[in-house]
Structures are given as C-alpha cells and as structure tokens.
Amino acid sequence: MAYPLADLKLAPDTLERQLLATWKHERLFEKTQEAVRYGPPFVFYEGPPTANGRPGIHHVFARTIKDLVCRYHTMLGQAVTRIAGWDTHGLPVEIEVEKTLGISGKKQIEAYGVEKFNALCRENVFMYKTDWESLSERIGYWLDYAHPYITYTNEYIESVWWLLKRLHEKALLYRGHKVLPYCPRCGTALSSHELALGYEEVQTNSVYVTFPLAADPKRQLVIWTTTPWTLLANVAVAVHPDLEYGEYEVHGMRYIVATARAGDLHVAGAPLAEAPRVAGYHGRDLVGLKYVRPLEVVPLPQEGQRAIVVAGGFVSAEEGTGLVHMAPAFGADDYAVAQQYGLAFVNPVAPDGTFQDTRWTELNGLLVTAKETNRLIIDRLKHEGRWLETRPHTHAYPFCWRCDSALIYYARTSWFVRTTAVKARMLEVNAQVRWHPPEVGSGRFGEWLENNVDWALSRDRYWGTPLNVWQCERETEHREVLGSYAELAERWGRPLPTDFDAHKPGIDGYHWPCRECGGTMRRVPEVIDAWFDSGAMPYAQWHYPFEHQADFKGHFPADFICEGVDQTRGWFYSLLAIGVTAFDALVYKNVIVNEHVLDAQGQKMSKSRGNVVNPWQVIEEVGADAVRLFLLGQSQVGVRKRFDRQQIPKVAGGFLNTLRNTYEFFAWYVGDWTSASGAPPVAERPLTDRWVLARLDEVVAAVRAA
Ligand SMILES: [Zn+2]
Ligand SMILES: [Zn+2]
Questions:
Q1: Is 46 helix (H, G, I), strand (E, B) or coil?
Q2: Catalytic residue of the set 220, 471, 541, 567
Q3: Of 470, 571, 615, 634, which one is the catalytic site residue?
Q4: How many domains, in total, are found in the chain?
Q5: Active-site position among 67, 87, 334, 559
Q6: Contacting residues for 442 by C-beta, under 8 A, at least 6 apart
Q7: What is the DSSP string of 320-359?
Q8: Contact by Cβ (8 Å): 418, 174
Q9: Alpha carbon distance 329, 356 (integer Å)
Q10: Among all ligands shown, which has an atom nearest to the Cα of 511?
C-alpha cells in the first residue's frame, strides 16, 4: 500500500479536518498519553472557563499557548496532565438565567423559587460546552474532556468545605463588618480582585457644597463630592490636622477651604483665592467645630456624634477642598473614622441600591447611582442655598464586572479570609514563581499582593458553594464549620439522603440543636465567591483529601499554568492565596501570561462595537495552523495583540509555504515507500540527507536550551 498522501489542493480547513478525523480514528491523543504515562511528570493546571458564553479568539490564543507547551513536554517524553475543568458557579450563570427568565434581582429570584432557579443554573452552565469542546478540538488543543473537574459537583464542594474548615482552624476565616464595593443590581459585595476588573473612565457631576458652622452660619465649610447622594448620610467633615486652611470673604459670607485649593473653586463667578483672606488655620484648629448638616431628610439614631469636624490622615489637598464629607455607611475611610470618633451611623439605602424611608418621599425607591437621583439632590442643595458650583469630573469609577452596574461602597457584614495575615508569605512564594513576562510577577501581581486586603469571601446569592458555617440562632458566636458530609450527617443525626445535593436551598434544611445552649444551629445564608472554587482546583479536582491522595500529591504544585492578563487578580491570585493560607505552599512554578487580543485597529473587542472576531470563521478561511502560528508569531505573548485578518498570511504564510513545498517535494519522490519499509542507516544516506539531519539536531538542541 502506498503512503497515504494528503491532497494539498484542498483548502486548509478541509485538509485539517481530514487530519483531525484521522487523529480521532487513531485515538492519537489517548495514545500519546499512554506512551508517556510513566515518563517524568509535567503538571499542567487548566484554568476552568465558564461554559455559559461562547469561546472567542482570545481563548484560542491562550489555548494555543497551553497546547504548545504541553505538546512540547509530551514530545520530550513527559507525562503531561491535561485535565479539563469547568467553572460552574457564580454570578455569570445566575445572570444568564435571570435573562432567560426575564427577571432581575434577588426579590424576583426568590419569588420564582430558589430551587427551580438553581436547577436552571445547573442546566445553563453547559449551554456552550459543545462549542468549547469542538473549538478546542478544531484548533488541536489536546485536553482530556472525558474526565473534567466540575466545580458544582458534591465531591468538588466537599473539598472546598474541607479547605474552608482548615482556614477556620487556622483562625483565617472570620465574619466582619466592612464597607465593601457592592453591586446594587446583583445585591452582593465584590472582592477587591473583582473590583479591579471593572474600572472605567466616567464623567460625573461633582459638587461644591457649603456646611455652615452651627455657631455662626455666615462662616461655612466647603466640601466637594463626586457622589452627591451620599450627603444624605453625612455625619462629619474630615480635615487633615497639619494642612493649612484659609477663610475667604465674598459678599459678607465666609468660606473655609484648604489654602492650596482656594484657586480651584468659584464663588460668585470668581476663583475663591481672589477674594480677601480674612483668617487662616491648621486643620487641627477646626477639629471639634459643629456645623449644620445638609439635606436633613434622614433621621439619625440617638447615639453617636454628628455634624462635627474630625481629623483624618487620609485627607489631602490634591483635589476637592481639603475638607471631606463623611458618610460612614458608604466609604471605608468614613467607616474607620466613625469607629474612631464614635460617630452616628445611618444608612438610608436598601440592599437593592435605592433610597428607603427618607422624609423626602420623591427620593424613596430611586437608585442612588442614577443620574436623575443626583440631579434631584443637586437641585435641592441649590434650593436650600447649600450649593456653590457643579463641575463635570472625569475619573475612574468601578462598575460590576459581571453586569456593568455602577458599584457603590456600602457597609455590609461579610465573611473574610484573613489573607493579610499571610501577606509576607504570599510575597515570598510569589518570588519563587517564574513569570513570563517577568514584569507581571514583580509589577502588576506583586503590587497587588503588596496592597493585599482580606478576601471578602461571601456572596449573598444562590448558585454557589454554600458557606459551610452553622450558627446558633440564639448566640451567633456558637458556631461550627463543617469540613465534610460525614460531619454533616453526624450533626444531623441521620445518614444523608442518596440524592443529597450540597446546594441551596436544600442545604439550608439541615439544622440541629446547639451543643452549648440548645438553640437551633442553622447554616448562614451566604454562598462563596466562585473564585475560591476555581482556586481550589488543585485539591478539589481530586476530591482531596477524601480520595486520590496520591494523585493529588503527584500533581502538586503545577509546573505550568497559562491564562490571560486579566487573571492577575482572578485565578492567579485565588490559586496562590489558597495555597499559602491552607498549605503554606507554592501552587505553580511557571506562568505564561498572555495579553489581550484587540481588533485590527487596536480597539478592544466588544459585542457593542460589533468587532468581535468569530474564531470559527477565520479558521474556516485560513485554517487553524495559520491562526495558531499568527497568534504565537506576530509578537511576544505579553504584548497586546492586534488581530488583523490581513496580517495572517504575512506572519504565518512564510513558514507554512515552506512546509507545503517541502511536503510536495516529499510527495514527488515518495514512490512506493511507506513508513513500514523503514529508512536506511544514517551512515549510508547521501550527504545532503545527513546534513539535513545534523541541522535538525541543532534546532532541537537550540529549542531545548531556550
Ligand atoms: Zn452586578
Ligand atoms: Zn447556642
């Protein structure tokens, strides 16, 4: 039988599909896995995608790099682990289901029924699984899709519980009160790494507002705010104790601002600095003064100081007026000052981000971040003679990375992982990681770790790993953190049902008498951050420590991971944070970070711009080899890449044409030869053949040395 030649006249797409079919028929992937099974291990962790969106061209990029590295190590005879994984919990899934049902927000989900809702989430997760698998196969990304880890399975969740219990035992899990970035639409707090994913430049109306001193209303403190809605909850004004302040007179009224800022705001059409300066102070001289609050429409509680000037080291003269209005429910600095000074605490905003129970009925029910709301507030400030100037202000503002809603800072109770306790250790561990490009590790990621804050772990949502904390109804300090289903059954006093499902709402039905006081132990309502799930994959993919202990040990840490630069604060962080908090261990040794793929003009690809490249379409046009080669060869992986269809032949064509010509040469001379007939000993071959083999050896040596 003659050597089976490929027909080069066929389009690349057709040719490649024929080859893929042959590979599949030969079970080539499985064979390569079997061939290296006992080779030295090369551990790769697949960062789990969420399969409820279609894969894009940037996924092709990351998957091409992953495949290249794993394929290379397989060719070296190493046993490469290539377990596929799916990230299945969390808001992206909930939001899709909300859209499908035509509902929005937690109230409507609860009215619909959490059990039915979560059942739909479970189905929705794999809406595009086939797309992911077939695209991966089409681009030749070899991964074991037959045995993936899936974060929603009972086994996976049990491992996550075990990890959380371990953190609890190390006193690294706690319930705290913090002002957190909060999405009013999703009704949940965001962790700081999620926050970092969603900043956008926006223009908002900032206002200069006057706070007359209680003892002499002609003397007025001037504050500046970019969020006028927070004024309703104002209880204090902060000044920097060492900063210089001036009092300026205009038409018989006196305005107090930081001297350095007096040129920046206008009173009666002229910069305040041009008005006569009638007095000067240091900030500390102002501390303790009482003033008249603006917008008296929210009843304050009896206890706590209010309408008072306080000192704050965070105040600067870089923008605004050097006087900062304090609303403890809506700012981290504000909250800290409130603790320090015993300020009154008031929060007129419901968890859905709307005003509630104010005396200003028109405002009740309005979303605080809506432009209309802020317009109403500014109008009222003007009407009450408290307004000096409105100024458009361009600044980076955080938006929900999932649903695009403007976030607010909002005081919540939340569960935290005390990552700050191991910050120094995380930095040490990170220093052992080989980052490519190196500046991501030392720069972006290293700085992120330097500024570490505790991980806000809990989410007030439905579809996620339920937080495994049970609390006594009588005394919340009577608390148990369960680390396995066996423990759950033991507490509950019966074996778990055969169809046990760890999710809400079923899991909330498990309760038992408190050992300390006889009250009822109930699970806290929260689920956890899905980033904790994905960061737990080194353990949970093996159902560690309940099963496969040897497999876990043989596959920890990873030799190699590779994801996009947006994972710096996502998966790269959650892997490392869990590794250090739970095991004091290095989780990955080498990381390749690929940059974003932009469109041909250098614009970010987005559905709204309509410039998203459909990977299937390009592959059909030029073939997967050309696309892969283009993505790898166009520039360094750590550089932003422009995906220009026209550039593909220029980048990939040279090599592929040489390969094609070489193959044609081979086809011309192949004659009756088959691979079974073998090759003559090297010493008997013509000189040119031997030269080619020598060159090949040089190339192999150069690649291995690189
Ligand atoms: Zn949101
Ligand atoms: Zn109790």
A1: coil
A2: 567
A3: 571
A4: 1
A5: 87
A6: 435
A7: TTSEEEE-GGG-HHHHHHHHHHTB-----B-TTSBB-S-S
A8: yes
A9: 14
A10: 2
How far is the CA of 308 from the CAs of 233, 240, 351, 358, 419, in angstroms? 13, 14, 28, 22, 35
353 alpha carbon, closest ligand:
1
Write out the residues surrounding ion ligand 2, Cβ under 5 A. Answer: 472, 474-475, 478, 514, 516-517, 519
pLDDT of residue 334: 92
Residue the block writes with tokens 């706070």: 211
Is 531 considered catalytic here? Answer: yes
Q: How many CA atoms lie within 13 A of 417 on its CB side?
A: 26
> What single DSSP character describes residue 213?
B
Helix (H, G, I), strand (E, B) or coil at 470: strand
Ligand 2 mean position, distance from CA 473 (Å)? 7
- Assign residue 250 the CATH number of its domain: 3.90.740.10
Q: Which helix or strand (DSSP H or E) is residue 663 part of?
A: helix 647-669
Distance from residue 106's CA to the centre of ligand 1 (Å): 12
The answer for residues whose C-beta is within 8 angstroms of residue 391's C-beta and 6 or more apart is: 205, 206, 207, 208
Q: Are 210 and 386 in contact (CB under 8 A)?
A: yes
1 confidence band (pLDDT: 50, 70, 90): low
Half-sphere exposure at residue 278, Cβ-oriented, CA atoms within 13 angstroms:
13
| Mean local confidence (pLDDT), 668-693 | 84
Q: Which of 70, 68, 98 is nearest to 83 (CA)?
A: 70
Q: Report yes or no on 92 lying in a domain.
A: no
**Other CB atoms closer than 10 Å to residue 614's CB: what's the count?**
11
Identify whether 33 is a catalytic site residue: no
- Name the band, by pLDDT with cuts 50, 70 and 90, for residue 636: confident
User: Is 291 domain-assigned?
Assistant: yes
Question: CB neighbours of 483 closer than 8 A, spacing ≥ 6?
Answer: 161, 162, 164, 165, 166, 468
Residue 685 structure tokens: 């071959």
Q: What is the dihedral of CA 112, 118, 119, 122, to 10 degrees?
A: 140
Other Cβ atoms within 10 Å of 639 Cβ, number:
12
- Rounded to 5 degrees, φ, ψ at 201 are -75, 125
Task: Tell me how far the alpha carbon of residue 175 is from its chain's centroid.
Answer: 22
- Which ligand has the nearest atom to the CA of 521? 2
The token pair at 353 is 């981000």
Contact 496, 566 (CB under 8 A): no
Residue 355, domain extent: 199-398
**Is position 101 within any domain?**
no
DSSP code at position 466: B
- d(C-alpha 24, C-alpha 38), whole Å: 23
- Taking only the tens place, the pLDDT of each residue in 488-500 is 999 999 999 999 9
* Amino acid letter, 628: R
CA gap 406, 371 in Å, rounded = 11
Q: Is the pLDDT of residue 53 over 90?
A: no
* Ligand 2 geometric centre to CA of 469 (Å): 14
Within 8 A by CB and 6+ apart from 290, the residues are 213, 214, 215, 307, 308, 309
8 Å CB contact between 384 and 261: no
Q: Is residue 428 part of a domain?
A: no
Render pLDDT for 212-253 as a digit per residue (tens, 0 to 9). Answer: 999 999 999 999 999 999 999 999 999 999 999 999 999 999
Residues 334 and 391: their CA atoms lie apart, in Å, by 23
Closest ligand by atom to 94 CA: 1
What gap in Å lies between CA 63 and CA 338, rounded to an integer?
Answer: 49
Q: How far is CA 481 from CA 162, 530, 575, in A?
A: 9, 19, 22
- Identify the three-state secondary structure at position 478: coil
Cα 393 to averaged position of ligand 1 atoms, centre (Å): 24
Establish whether 48 is a catalytic residue. Answer: yes
User: How far apart are alpha carbons 642 and 177 in whole angstroms?
Assistant: 44
